[in-house]
Amino acid sequence: MAAVTRSSWAGAAAVAVAGMAAACGSSGLASEPPSKVLSAAVSATTEAAGYEVTGSGDFTDNVTSLDIRVIGADWSGTFVVGGVTIDIMQVDGNVYVRAPAAYYSAAGDSSAEAADLNDVWVEGAAGSKVANDFAALSARLDISSDLAATGTVTSDGTASIDGEPVVILKAADGSTVDIASSGPAYPLRVTTTGSGAAVFDLSQWNAVASFTPPPNPILIPSGS
């Protein structure tokens, strides 16, 4: 079987999620300086057991939406690229992908190979090309680390999301993040600008259901 090359699509999903690092902060901190709001968000997300991120917009490489649940270093969900829905999961460093034949054909596999992999789970063991292709996405799902590396943010007022009051922070590139202004300082929405304009909603903080690897996947071993 030829190598399953999907680096550009994995990178696109990572870029999409990277927009969430543009800013963040707050919890009963509506009158506090933006730096303190951001610090509160870093602390809250560091302590969180899990969350879900959904996003839609004009991402690179034809990625148009994503929906991913995160528990620690593990994650599971879907993203849509070029009209094709891809199921993706990482558990204990191993990446699992389920996609239609069109995905593999576009990635360079032969028609026969794409047919063999059509809509079946493929496991890329830690250290395999499959796992390495999605390493950037995995890193970007570490929200607390992204927030800690944000840099300077400014206040952009207050608002509400689904009736919940938020404080809005703005990053240097114009991206904004809406932070819960009561309770834990969880980011609830991120809006990015420019060529990667998109909206991300973050929810289900500490309420994400656990998930397990799919049974009997086709294995791509480490180093392959």
In short:
The protein is 25% helix and 34% strand.
Describe the 3D structure.
This protein is of the alpha+beta class and 224 residues long. The chain has a single domain, classed as Clam (outer membrane lipoprotein receptor (LolB), chain A), CATH 2.50.20.20. 25% of the residues lie in helices and 34% in strands. The protein has a twelve-stranded mixed β-sheet. The longest helix has 14 residues. It is elongated. The N terminus is likely disordered.
Specify the structural class.
Answer: alpha+beta
Question: What's the number of extended β-strand segments?
Answer: 12
Strand ordering within the main sheet: 7-8-9-10-11-1-2-3-4-5-6-12
Silhouette: elongated
Query: Poorly predicted ranges (pLDDT <50, ≥5 residues)?
Result: 1-5, 20-27
Give the CATH topology.
outer membrane lipoprotein receptor (LolB), chain A
Taken in chain order, the helices and strands follow as HHEEEEEHHEHHHEEEEEE
